[in-house]
Amino acid sequence: MKKYLALLALSVSLTSVATAQQDPKAGKILDQMSAKYQAMKAFKATFTQTLENDAAKVKENLSGDITVSGQKFRLKMSGQEVINNGQTMWTYMKAENEVNISDYEPEDQEISPSQIYTLYKKGYKYAYVQEAKEGGELVDVIELSPEDRNNPVYKVRLKVGKTDKAVKSWQMFKKNGNRYTYKISKFQPNVPVDATTFNFDKAKYKGVKVIDLR
Q1: Which residues touch 36 (CB under 8 Å, ≥6 apart)?
Q2: Which SUPFAM superfamilies match (predicted)?
Q3: Structural domain span for residue 170
C-alpha cells in the first residue's frame, strides 16, 4: 500500500482553497497543461519513481504504469494493482494473492491520480522558476507550495514541456526528508478503455483471498 500511496501522494490535501496572489506566468502554463490532460477520454503513463532520503542514505527505484479516465484509474506497481471504478477500490497484492475492497469516497480521499494535473487549483501557491532542459527538450519548471502548513509535503516541482505542455517529470519534497522523483518514460493519450478496465475480475485471479472492508 505504501508504495502506491507514495505515487499518488502528489495530490494530497486538496481541501483548502487558494486565496493568495499567484504567478500569472506559471498559472498560464499550468492551465494549458491541465486542459491537455482533461481533454483526453483516457490516458496511460509508464513511469519510474525514485525515493531518496539523504540523511537515511536511502535510494529506491520502482516502476509501474497507470491508466486514468476521469476519477477512475488502474495502477500497476511493484507487485500491486490498485483499481478504482469511481465507487469501489480494489487493492490486489500479488505476493499474498489477496485483494482488499473498500468504498471510494472522493471527498474523504487525500489522494487521487485523476487530480495530479489539477493539483495547483486548490490549496497551493505556484511560481515560475526557470526554463531548463530535460532529455534534450526545453521545459518550464514550476514550483507548488501548499498553503496548509500541516501538509507533509512542503514543495512540488513540476517540469512541463514548452512545446507540448506535457508533464515530463515532477519531484515531491516531504518534511520527513523523503524526496520522490517521478519520470514519465512513455505516455499514451486516448487509450481504449471500457467497464472491465476499472473493475476487479475475481475470475482472473485464481484462488484469490478477498477481504471486504466496506
Answers
A1: 117, 164, 165, 166
A2: Prokaryotic lipoproteins and lipoprotein localization factors
A3: 2-15+23-188
